[in-house]
Amino acid sequence: MAWLFLIPLVAVALLFGLLALLWLADSGFSYVAWALSTLEEDLQAGVAGVREKLFRRAARKHVERRFAVAAGATGTVDHDAVEATKQMPALRRLFDQALPDAVVHCLRLHQKSAGAVGARYIFEVAYEPECYGLRQRVVGLAAAAMGMLERYPYLVEDEDLMACLIVLRTEVVPVCSNCPYLQYRLDTAPLLCPTATTLKIDPRRITKK
Length: 209
Prior knowledge:
The protein is mainly α. The protein has two domains: 10-70; 79-207, no CATH class. The protein contains six helices and no strands. The chain is globular.
C-alpha cells in the first residue's frame, strides 16, 4: 500500500516534465521562426544588392556606349536613338490624342447619363458598366503611358517627359482610380473633372453637341 503515496509525487513529476517539454518546444519554435526571418531578410538584402549591381553595370555600359557614339568610334550604333525614334510617334499619339480623347469621352458620358436618368449626384451612375468601363479605360491608358515613358531611352534627359511621368503617377492614375468628380451634384458640378483640368483639355470639347 506504500506505493499509493508515490502517486502524487509521480503526478507532480510528470506535470513538471510536461511543462519542461512545452517550454523547450516553444523556445525551439521561436528560434526556428527567428532563424527563418533572419534568412529571409538576408535573402532580400542579397537580391537587392544583386539588382543594384546589375543596374549600375547597365547604367555604366549605357554611358560608355553613348560616349563611344558621340566620339564617332568605328562600328558603334546608337541603339537608344533608334529605339527612341520608334517609340516617340506612339508616345505623341498617346499623349496628344488617345488619352485626352478617353478623358473627354468618359466625362461626357458621366454627365449625359446622369442627366438622362435624372440623377441628383453623378455617383448614381458611377457603376453602370459603360461609365465604370470608361473610367477604367482612362486608368489603363495612363498606366500604359507610364510604362512607355519608363522604357523611353532618353527619359532622364527630357524634362518634359519626366514631368509627364510624374503627373501621370501622382495626378491621373490615383485620381481616376478613385474619381472625386463622382461626388458632385450634377447641377453644380464643374465642367471639367480634375483629370481634364490636369491635362488642360479644352472645355469646348465637353460642351460640343
